[in-house]
Amino acid sequence: MLKFVFHDGKDLEIAGRPAYQAVAVEEGRATFVATFVLQDTRVTVASLVFPIAKPNDPLQMPFPWNCYNRFVESVKEIRR
User: Fold this and answer.
1) What share of residues in the chain are helix, strand, coil (percent, to 5)?
2) 31-58: average pLDDT
3) I need a surface site. Which of 20, 59, 63, 80 has the fewest CB within 10 A?
């Protein structure tokens, strides 16, 4: 069971839309990021839980911000 603690939050603009991003951390275990984007009639949410590698792990990878941000920008409301 992970127990995330709020670390940071900020207002954003994603593809011209107001958004909010929250980051929480389970110290030494994982980072959780959730991004909420106000669309025309809905709020879309993209989130990722990313494991934190051991401090001396040679395969340690930082949080994949570039990939995550591209994914968040790709989530759109489709109106029918």
Assistant:
1) 10, 50, 40
2) 87
3) 80
All structural domains of the chain with their residue ranges: 5-74
Cα dihedral 28/20/65/74 (nearest 10): 140
CB 11 within 8 A of CB 19: yes
3-class DSSP state for residue 53? Answer: coil
Full-model pTM: 0.83
From residue 2, alpha-carbon distances to 15, 18, 39, 50, 77 in Å are 32, 29, 30, 12, 31
Assess contact for 51 and 64: CB atoms under 8 A: no
